[in-house]
Design goal:
Elements lengths: L1 H30 L4 H18 L2 E6 L11 E4 L4 H10 L4 E6 L8 H7 L3 E3 L4 H11 L8 E4 L17 H9 L3 E7 L19 E7 L13 H19 L7
Helix pairs in contact: 1-2, 1-4, 2-3, 5-6, 6-7
Length: about 250
Amino acid sequence: MRALALLRSILGIVFLIPWTVLYSVITIVLGNVNQFARADRYVRYWARKLLDAFGVHVKLHGVENIPTDRGVLFIFNHQSHFDILALKAHVPRVLSFGAKAELFKIPFFGPAMRALGTLPIERGNRAEVFRVYQKAQERFSSTLNFILAPEGTRQSKPEIGIFKKGPFIFAINGQVPIVPVVIAGAYEILPKHSLIPNSRRLSRTVHMEFLPPLETQGLTAQDAATIRDEAYSQVLRTFTKLQPLIEPL
């Protein structure tokens, strides 16, 4: 079974490259004519097929906690590139991600991210990050939402890292609710510094739980640390609860 899983994963990598180029071109075209919702549907399909190619299933919990009448900032714990695929494939809202600025240099993929309104995050340049956040605040709406990883980067172990305040200040300034999304099982598919996804099992399940929104109405930037700590506590507690459901490496 492990040999079959490895072969499937290698074929998945071969499939990934032309599939991503194709859908990047489609996204660039649609994004540049302001067809964002249509582009998002294509990207959702791209992500779902890549999950299928690597034998990854996603089980959702708490979808009823997502507000449907206003813009939302989703935050998620980040442990694998498969976090992004799972979120893009299964969060039932049009999303703009934040991504490290270096990714925008990748041919096809970078321009596609730009066409979708992805936020370029300059790690180590706090002033530039807040400038990008400030410019994006006016884009929150009932049909467009943002999603950020408050840890700032993928974790090297299946654990929850320290949360930065930036995303919480972003939500407070926009006066939008924060919905924490807890992801468990993505690390085991592709740990940081690994190259071949899910090479030991034919299938794996990622569990994704949406927590009740944290309201920011009436809060100020001085409240960011408090709401950050509350979000961290909830995410850590839920991640620990989900761990018994995860297949080991």
